[in-house]
Amino acid sequence: MTVRTSLALSAVLLALAPTVLAQGKNNPSTPANKKLFCWEEKGQRVCSDALPADVVNVARDEISATSGLRTGGVGRAMSEEERAQAAIAAQQKMIDDAASEMRRRTDAAMLMSYRSEEELRRVFNERTAIVDNNVRTARYNAVSLREGLVSLLQTAGDQELAGRPIRADMSATIHQRHAELLRTRRLQQSFEAQRAQLDVEIADILQRYRNMKGITAEAAEEAATPAMPPARN
């Protein structure tokens, strides 16, 4: 039998806890791993010896029915928005870690590994190409998702104007596409910010490389300028 108690009844149970626990220990029919689940519901603390289906995703504590001690707990399930934010944060951390590792390797090997600024620029070009590809992909996906969402909204609007109800599956698809569009736009903004930061980082490393090598700004500019072919008579 499921026991579900409100805050007031929980207080009574707490007062009777020593007696109940003693009876539980002496009762061979009480399983040793029996648990109680406690969660917040409409501002009240609710406890039950079985977990209702409607609170599976709610934060809760797990309490031993024999000892009365908390044995664990489960945090609430993340919303779709929170999962999207977590995915963005994880991807941004991966990008930041890669950039940090690149800076470390570049600083350590700059004088020994790169004989010229051109060699160093080739390394930067690889990173730039990766980030540029991420930006282009995110922009393309955002445009594609927006066009698809606009088409769905137009279809739904036409159905409403015709006096027909919008189907549940179409409504769910519209919400899903909208969430995907918002997530993709956040990724796009993140990649664009990363691209702008990469330009600043490359300029900083190039300047430090020139300082280490004793290359003046004039010499660096002259080396970066392609030679003009000789004029024909």
Task: Provide a descriptive summary of the structure in words.
The chain is an alpha+beta fold and 233 residues long. It has two domains: 4-74, no CATH class; 80-215. The protein is built from six helices and five strands, in the order βααββββαααα. It has helices spanning 7-15, 17-26, 80-113, 117-161, 168-213, 217-224; strands at residues 4-5, 35-41, 44-48, 60-64, 70-74. Strands 1-3-2-4-5 form a five-stranded antiparallel β-sheet. A hairpin with a 2-residue loop joins strand 2 (35-41) and strand 3. Helix 3 (80-113) packs parallel to helix 5 (168-213). The radius of gyration is 31 Å and the shape is flat. It starts with a strand and ends in a 9-residue tail after the last helix. Residues 5-25 have low confidence and may be disordered.
Key terms for this structure?
five-stranded antiparallel beta sheet; flat; 2 domains; 6 helices
Strands, total number: 5
Spell out the helices and strands N to C. EHHEEEEHHHH
* Helical run tally: 6
**Main sheet summary:** 5 strands, antiparallel
* Secondary structural class: alpha+beta
Which strand-content bin applies to the residues?
A: 5-15%
Q: Domain count, please report it.
A: 2
- Backbone CA Rg: 31 Å
Low-confidence stretches: 5-25
Mean residue pLDDT: 76
The helical percent reads 55-70%
